[in-house]
Design goal:
Blueprint lengths: L11 E3 L4 E3 L1 H18 L8 E6 L3 H12 L3 E8 L3 H18 L3 E5 H5 L3 H8 L3 H19 L4 E3 L4 H13 L3 H6 L3 E2 L7 E3 L7 H11 L15 H15 L3 H21 L7 E2 L6 E2 L8 H10 L6 H20 L1
Parallel strand pairs: 3-4, 3-6, 4-5, 6-8
Antiparallel strand pairs: 1-2, 7-8, 9-10
This protein binds Fe4 H S5 and zinc ion (2 copies).
Length: 329
């Protein structure tokens, strides 16, 4: 197995590129893919102050590493979600990464700063954990970016993530979501610009980046991800990718090239008026004098006694059993 670039011994095989690479040229390929994504979608300027949303997983640590290497001024933000040991460990990985590289990291703790955590919010809302979690993270990333004067928020969503979301949106023909599924969300109505520089790289490639660069990251998946439909979509896409390498990239990148422009007029028809939340001042789509969804969640969850991860998982497993039994009848 030889490296496509230097013909030296290769360490990774990438069927979707029909190529193998040595460590040095694999890293070069990754950097080029990130630079291409940033350039093609006008994601980040060299003068921008960048805030990277980090979780302690491979993707967010890799994108932070790459941006710093490419010369961007990138700080990190970690939101401690209170998901038991998973959150404790992922925080340790993130703090170690930042300390070893002398990077600026801000930590916001849902429990310490807002009086709740994701297991408790899940119990209170009665919805899947990712619903309260995603909303909390979005709110806090936006707030940190605006308060800290950052120009752009970066997330570590990769090609597998985006292809899975696209697959779900297309299965439901959710045209509004499809229209908004772009790797750049411009700054609007007091929300910061948000970008996804890893859209041209896969999960496997990001794991390889971390191994080669000596980045330790949390390998375990979030224990509350059960029931997240995107996991199933990823499995389906992996089967297709296995049979026909390059399918995922042509599906998602082809969507950006050929379908997103067709949907652009729908994307532009989003909410045009926003009002500030009367409690936190964040922009909200509600009427004048309303309270945003985050503040409502905090109020209800902080008033509830803390709930453990295990309890929420037990409940979700027993709900699934009931559904399975009901579907047999
Ligand atoms: S942390 Fe939160 Fe994810 Fe866990 S509860 Fe879902 S959204 S899966 S990226
Ligand atoms: Zn090489
Ligand atoms: Zn609010």
């Amino acid at each position: 197995m030889k490296c496509r670039t230097c013909r030296g011994p290769a360490i990774i095989e990438l069927p979707r590129h029909n190529a193998n690479f040595c460590a040095e040229h694999f890293l070069q390929m990754c950097r080029r893919q990130v630079e291409k994504a940033i350039h093609d979608h006008d994601m980040i300027k060299k003068t921008d102050r960048v805030l990277v949303a980090v979780s302690g997983g491979k993707d967010s640590l890799a994108v932070w590493d790459m941006l710093v290497e490419l010369g961007y001024q990138a700080d990190g933000l970690y939101v401690a979600l209170g998901i038991g040991e998973y959150s404790e460990e992922s925080r340790e990985y993130t703090e170690r990464f930042a300390a070893e590289r002398n990077l600026k990291l801000t930590v916001v703790s849902l429990r310490d700063d807002y009086g709740y955590d994701i297991p408790t919010a899940t119990k209170v809302t009665g919805r899947v954990p990712c619903s309260a979690c995603g909303m909390s993270k979005r709110h806090l990333f936006d707030k940190a970016a605006v308060d800290g004067g950052y120009d752009v928020v970066v997330t570590g969503h990769n090609l597998d993530d985006e292809a899975a979301v696209l697959f779900g949106n297309a299965l439901r023909w959710d045209v509004e979501y499809l229209a908004r599924q772009l790797p750049v969300l411009p700054s609007r109505h007091g929300f910061p610009k948000k970008v996804k520089p890893l859209i041209r790289l896969t999960e496997r490639e990001m794991a390889a980046w971390c191994v080669i660069r000596g980045i330790d990251y949390i390998v375990e998946e979030c224990p509350m991800a059960e029931g997240n439909r995107h996991i199933g979509y990823k499995e389906v896409l992996n089967v297709l990718e296995e049979k026909s390498p390059g399918t995922k990239a042509s599906y998602y990148l082809g969507f950006l090239d050929r379908m997103a422009p067709v949907l652009a007029s729908i994307a532009a028809t989003g909410a045009d008026s926003v009002t500030p939340c009367v409690q936190c001042g964040a922009p909200t789509g509600g009427e004048e004098g309303s309270v945003c969804a985050f503040c409502r969640l905090v109020e209800r969850s902080a008033a509830h006694e803390p709930v453990s991860v295990e309890l929420v998982r037990k409940k979700s497993r027993s709900q699934k059993r009931v559904q399975a039994e009901a579907s047999k009848k």
